[in-house]
Amino acid sequence: xxxxxxxxxxxxMFDKNLQDLVRGIRNHKEDEAKYIxxxxxxxxxxxxxxxxxxxxxxxxxLTYLQMLGYDVSWAAFNIVEVMSSSKFTYKRxxxxxxxQCFHEGTDVIMLTTNQIRKDLSSPNQYDxxxxxxxxxxFVTPDLARDLANDIMTLMSHTKPYIRKKAVLIMYKxxxxxxxxxxxxxxxxKEKLEDPDPGVQxxxxxxICELARRNPKNYLSLAPLFFKLMTSSTNNWVLIKIIKLxxxxxxxxxxxxxxxxEPLTNLIHSTSAMSLLYECVNTVIAVLISLSSGMPNxxxxxxxCVQKLRILIEDSDQNLxxxxxxxxxxxxxxxxxxxxxxxxxxxQCLDDKDESIRLRALDLLYGMVSKxxxxxxxxxxxxxxxxxxxxxxxxxxxxxxxxxxxxxNYQYITNFEWYISILVxxxxxxxxxxxxxxxxxxxxxxxxxxxIRGFAVAQMATLLDNAHLLTGNTQRNGICEVLYAAxxxxxxxxxxxxxxxxxxxxxxxATLPGHIQAVYVQNAAKLFATVLQKHEGETDSQAAQxxxxxxxxxxxxxxxxxxxxxxxxxxxxxxxxxxxxxLQQKNVExxxxxxxLFAGELNxxxxxxxxxxxxxxxxxxxxxxxxxxxxxxxxxxxxxxxFAKEEPKHYRSRHTEVDEKELARRREVRKQEQANNPFYxxxxxxxxxxxxxxxxxxxxxxxxxxxxxxxxxxxxxCDLYLWLEEERQQKEKAExxxxxxxxxxxxxxxxxxxDSGPESEEDIRPAHQVDIVTEEMPENAxxxxxxxxxxxxxxxxxxxxxxxxxxxxxxxxxxxxRPEVLKSPAEDRDSxxxxxxxxxxxxxxxxxxxxxxxxxxxxxxxxxxxxKKHKEVEEELLxxxxxxxxxxxxxxxxxxxxxxxxxxxSDLDFWLSSAPxxxxxxxEVTAPSSAAAVDTSSAAAPESEPDEPKDTEPExxxxxxxxxxxxKKEKEExxxxxxKRHHHHHHHGxxxxxxxxxxxxxxxxxPLPVMYIYSLLAENSYIKMVYDIQGNHQDESKVVVSxxxxxKSDSFLKSMxxxxxxxxxxxxxxxxxxxxxxxxxxxxxxxxGVSNEARFVFSVQSIVMPQKLKGTLTFxxxxxESSTHEKLDFKLHFTCTSYLITTPCYSDAYAKLLESGxxxxxxxxxxxxxxxxxxxxxxxxxxxxxxxxxxxxxxxSMYSRSIQGHHVCLLVKTSVFIESKWEExxxxxxxxxxIKQTFSKC
Amino acid sequence: MIKAILIFNNHGKPRLIRFYxxxxxxxxxxxIRETFHLVSKRDDNVCNFLEGGSLIGGSDYKLIYRxxxxxxxxxxxxxxESELGILDLIQVFVETxxxxxxxxxxxxxxxxxxxxxxxxxxxxxGGMVLExxxxxxxxxxxxxxxxxxxxxxxVI
Lengths: 1241, 156
Description:
The complex is a heterodimer of chains A (about 1250) and B (about 160). Chain A is of the alpha+beta class and about 1250 residues long. The two termini of chain A are about 65 Å apart. Chain B is an alpha+beta fold and about 160 residues long. Chain B contains 5 helices and 7 strands. At the A-B interface, helix 1, helix 3, helix 5, helix 7 and helix 9 of A face strand 2, helix 1, strand 3, helix 2 and helix 4 of B.
C-alpha cells in the first residue's frame, strides 16, 4: 500500500492487483464469468494508460485469466510493451505473459526481435535470463534465425547461470532453424566439459535430445560421453547419458560391449533406483543390439531379469510399473528368460492399478507360445468379464486380438477356437472396437481357407441374432461385426435359406448404411447360391419362393436414405425381378447369376497400392487437355497414389511408345493375367438393369418375432481348451508309436507363413490351415521405410555433424561480434596447441619458396578454368573474422571422405580397444588411438617432405605423453600422406594442378589461438582489452568493444570512460552531454569478473591511423575503504579497423582488378616462418580480409572499408604481398600494419 | 522433453499451467479436464505413471504426477525423460516452493501464481530440465526477488 500512496496516483490506488482479482473471483463463485468480464473491461482500460506499472499489473492479471481459459491474445501488443520496460520487475511480467500466450501465429512476435536482442546483451544477467526463458517458449523460425548468433555468444558468457540457459535454448533454436546446428555444434560440444555442473548438464540434455532423434550423427561423441559417464557423479547427468547410450548402441554393437562392464558396475553400486533402472534399461538395449548368440552375456541378462523381478515384486507401485516396462523390452530378444516369470506377470494382471495391468498385458503379448496361447487368452477372457471400465476392457479386447493375430497368427493352432473367441468378444457391450473384431473375422475367413465353413456357420448365428448386437449403432460399435458376418456368409456360404432370410429382416434397416449395403449385396450372393442349389430340380418351387422373398423385402432398402444401399437394392431388385420372369418361363439362370459373383477376392497388403509402380508411359503430371487458363485450381496437387519409380519414366510420353511395343506389352500382360489365378477375369455374362419401380408397388413386410433371446454360443472356448489338450495328448501317444516316421514334410506343406520357434514344432495345428499371404505388386517388398512421418521437425536436424563447417553455413550476424568463434580444430585440442605450434615453427622454414611475378597471371587463368568446379567453394568463402580463421577447415569440407574417415577410425579404435578399467581408460585411449590408426596406414607410399606436417586433433592429452610424441609425429606424417593419397584419388580429374581443395587438404594443422582483442591498458586493479569494428550500415561509425577485467580483490564501481576527441574521431555521447563528458560504464565489477562495454565513435576520414588518448576512472571499494583510481590509455584506430570482411566472388574480383581503378603497391615480409594457411588466417583475422581464391601457395584476398573502398591483396608463399586499393595512402598504412602484425610473431 | 506441467487441485481447478507446446486456450482447458479426470480417479497407492492422455502427446508421452494434500502436480513427458527422475524433480519443485513460500499451501499458489511461475522457470526451461539442485534454484529466485525489491525502493 505504501508504494501506491507514495506514487500518489489516484487511479492506481483503485487498481486491482493479481491478489485482488483472485479474491474477487473467489467471492463471485455464482457469477464468475460475469465478474471476469467486468475485470477484463477494467484491464482494457488499464492497458490504455501510459503508466507502465499499471500496464504490467494488467498484464499480470491477464496471465492469470489465461490460465482459466480466457483468450488474451488481443493484448499481445501490450505484453510486448511491458516486455520492453527497462525495469526487471515489469519485464519479467511481460515475458511470463508472452511465454504463456505467444505462439508461432502471434504476429507481434516479429516486433520483439530487437527487444529480445537488447535484453540478451543486457549487463544484468537476470534480464538476459528472463529473455532466454521467455524465448524458449515462443521462439519462431524467424526469431531463431535472427537471434541464433546472439544466443550462441551467450553460451560462452561469464556467468554459468546464463550459459546453462543459453545452452538449453539452443535446442529450441535448432528445431526452428536447423541451419544453426552445424555452426553451433562445436561450442555445444565444448560445453559438455564446462566447469559448471549445471552448464554441463544442460549440454548433455541438449545433445541427448538431439541424438535421440538422429543417433547416428552423434556416434562420434561416444568416447566423450563414456568419459563423462565414468567421471560424473551427478545422477541426473548420468541418467541422461545412459539413456543416450541406449539410443546409440543399436547402431554400434561394439559400443555396447564396451558399456556392459561399467553399467553392470553401476547397477551393483548405485543406491538410486532411477539410475539403476536406466542402467538396466540400457543394458537391455545393449543386449538387444548384440547378436543373441553370445553366450557370455547370459549373465547380464540374468542380472537384468533378476533386478527387474525385484522391482516388480517391490511394494512400490512405481517400481513395479517400471519393472514391467523394462521387462517387455527384454522380451523382444530373450523371451525365454522372461517366460520363466510368467506367474509373476499373470499375478500383475490382478493388480488394482490399471497402469500396471496394462503393462502386464503388454508383456503377455510377447510371452505367448503355441502351447500357452489358449490358456493365456482364457485368463484374459475372464478379466474381460470382470473389468468394469470400458477403457480397460477395450484395452483387453485389443490385446487379445493382438496376441492372437501377432506374426501372421503364428501361435494359433486351432482357428475354430479363435473364431469362437471373436464371436464371444462380440458380447461385450459398449465396446468401441467392433471394427477391429470385424476385420479379424474377415481376415481369418479370407486367409484361412480351411476355416471358412466353420466361420460361415458362426456368422450365420450372429446374423440370426443380430438384434443383440444392434443395440449400439454408434460408429465403430459392435454392430460392425455384422458387416463382416454378412460378407463372410455371402461370400463363402454354400447354401442357407435361413441366413438369407435373416439378412432381409426389416430390422436391418436400422443398421448403419454401409452395413446395410453389404447386407443387400450379400443377399444377392446368397440368392445366387440358392438358385444354383435348386437348379436342375424339377420342382423349382423353392427357387421361386426365394425370388419372391427378395422381391418382397428389397423395396425396404430401395427406400433407404443411404445412397449406396438404395442403389444396390434397386439394381438387385430389378435383377431378381428379371430372374423371376425367366424362372417362370423355366429358363435356367443359375449359372449366369453365379457368374456375377464369380472369382475369388484376395487379401491385399496394406502397402500394396503404394508399391504399384507407375505404368510405363503414364505421366500423371502431363496435361491430358491443355488447361483453359492459369486462373484456377493451381494449388491443388493430386496426392501421390503410386510409388515413384525412376524419374525417367516421367519423361516418356504416352505417344512416344510405338504401336508394336504396345501390342507386345498387351500380350505380355494378358499372359500374366492368364497365369495369375487371382486375377479377376471379365465376367462372361452381363445383365441389364432396369429402372426402379414406383414406390406403390412395395408390399408391406411381415415382422418376424420368433427370435431367440440369447446368442447360442456354438462352441464354448473352454471346450476347445479341453479338446486341444486331449488332441495333443493323443498325438503324443501316436507319435511315440511311430516315432521313426518322418512327419515334418506332411506338416510343412500348408504353413509357409508359419515360423514358430523350434521347441514348438511339436504342436501340430488341428487344421491344415492354409494361410494365404497378402498380395503385393511384383518385385515390391514390404518395407518400413515409408512409415516415417515426413512432418517430423527432427528430420530437419538429421545433419552430419562430423563434417567440417562451411562458411555458407555461418549464422547470420547483424551487429559485429567481438567474440571469436573457435575453429573446430581449436576446440578439440586447445590444450595442446601451444606446444605444437612451437614445434612446427621450427620446421616451417623449409617451405619457403620464392614467388614470381608471372605466377599471378597463371593463377588467374586457372581460376577461370575452374570457375565452375569451384562454385561451391566460393560460397564457402564468405567471410566474418572468425570464419577466416576457419577457412582452412572450411575448404576441407569439400573433401568429406578424408575427414570423416579419420573420425570414424578414431571411434573405431576407441571401440575396438579392449575394455580397460574406466579410470585408466580415459588416460590411455586418447593418445594410443592416434598410434593405432597410424600403424594401420604406415604402408602409404607417397612422401612429400616439403609439406608441413600436422598433428591430428585427437591427441589431446599430449602433455602426459611427451615421450611418445616424436614417434607419433612421424606416424602422423605418414597418415597424412595416406590421406593425401586418398584425396588425389578422388580428385583425379583435376589433373596436375592442385585445386583449392587439393592444396589445402594436407594442411590441417591446427591454427594457433588468435586473440582479436588487443591490450588497451592495465594496472593492478583492472585490465582493458579492446577491439574496433565497423559495419556497412553506417560509413562514419565504428564500435569499440572494451572488455574490463577486474584483477583485484575489491569491488570496482562507478567506472567512467572518457576519450579526448580529435577532429577526425569523436566518441558518441548521449544527447545533451558536453563534448568532454565521460560515459558511465553500465556495470560494476565484482572481483575476478570481466564484462564488456561498447562505445561508438564517429570518424570522418579513414585513410590515416589515429591514436586517441583517454582515461578510465573508477572507484575501488574494499571492505575498509574505497579509493578513486584512474587509468590512462591510448586507443589505436588502425586503418584495418575500418575494414570489414566482405565476401567477394572470384569473377567479381577479377572484374575489379581489370577495371584499372585500383592503385597497386607491394610488400615483402622477411623472416616469416609460419605455414601459409596460418599466414592467411592471420591476415583474415587481424585485418578483416577474406580469401577469394587460393591456389597452391598463392591467394587472393579481398576486403572493403566502411566507406566502400575496395582492397585487394595477392599473397604468395614467399610472403610477398601485393595489394591494390583505391586510396593509396590508406593502402600504405594497411600494408604497414600487416607488416607489423607479422613482425610481432 | 517435458511437454506440459499442470498443477490443479482436488476439484480440477487449475493452479498453474505451463505448456511447452502451443495449444489454444480451449484445448488447454480440455487437456486439464482430461488429465484431471485420468488422475483423480486413481487411488493414492497406485503408481504415479499414466499412459494415454489422448489429447496431449500420444503413445510416446506419459503423465507423471504426484499428489500432495489438495494439489496434483502433473508432468507430461516423453520417453527421453527418466520416469523416476521426473518424480524426483516434482519433489524438488515442491520442496523449493515450500522453501520460498515457507510452508507452502494451496492458497500460496492461488494468490501467487506469478511467483510460482518464476520459481518453475528456474527448474524447467522450454520443456527441458534446467536445474535440479534446490539450493541453486532458491538462490536464483531470491536474487531476483531482491532485485525486484530494490527496484521498488528506487521508485520510493
